Amino acid sequence: MKKIILFSLLLALAACGGNDNTTTETRDNNKENNSEQTKEVNSSEESTAVSNEVNIVATNFDFNQEAYVVQSGEEVTITLTNEEGNHGISIDELGVIIESDGEAVIVPEDPGEYEIYCNIFCGEGHEEMIATLMVQ
Ligand SMILES: [Cu+2]
Q: What is the percent of the chain where pLDDT is above 90?
C-alpha cells in the first residue's frame, strides 16, 4: 500500500496596512500694514504753473492737483509722494511708471494732454485717481 503523503503548503499572507498620516498645517498669514506717513509741508500751490518739477502728492483717493503743466522738449522730473495710502502713477504714452514713492525723469517731445492714473489698486476710489499732464 502506498501512502500518499499530502503536503500542505501554508501560505502566509502578509497583510500590508497603509497608514496615511497626513498632517495639514494651517498657517495664518498676518499681513503687517506698515503705513508710514510722511508729512511734508509743501507750501507751493501753483496749480497750473509751468514747471520742470512735477510734485504729485497722493492721498485716498486723490492727487493734489487736477493738472500739471510742463514744457515740451525739456527735461521734467516727476516725483510721487504718498501722503495717505499706497498709490502709484502711470502715464502710458510717456512710459512713466512709478509705484509707491519715487520719481521719473522724462523729456516730453509732443505737446498735448496725457492721462496720469493710479496704477496700484488702492480701494474704492481707485478709479477716480486721475489727473492730467499738460505738455505745452
Ligand atoms: Cu489706486
A: 62
Q: Residue 74: name the closest of 132, 24, 136 by CA.
A: 136
The neighbourhood of ligand 1, an ion, using CB within 5 A, equals: 118, 122, 126, 129
The alpha-helical segments, DSSP class H, found in the chain are: none
Threshold 0.70, pTM exceeds: no
Amino acid at 13: L
- Check: CB of residue 46 under 8 Å from CB of residue 85: no
CA 72, 73, 74, 76 dihedral sign is positive
Report the separation in Å between the CA atom of 90 and the middle of ligand 1, taken as the mean of its atom positions.
11
Instruction: Tell me which residue has cell 503536503.
Output: 7
Tell how far the Cα of 89 is from the centroid of ligand 1, in angstroms. Answer: 8
How many angstroms does the Cα of residue 22 sit away from the middle of ligand 1?
A: 42
| pLDDT tens figures, 98-135 | 999 999 999 999 999 999 999 999 999 999 999 999 99
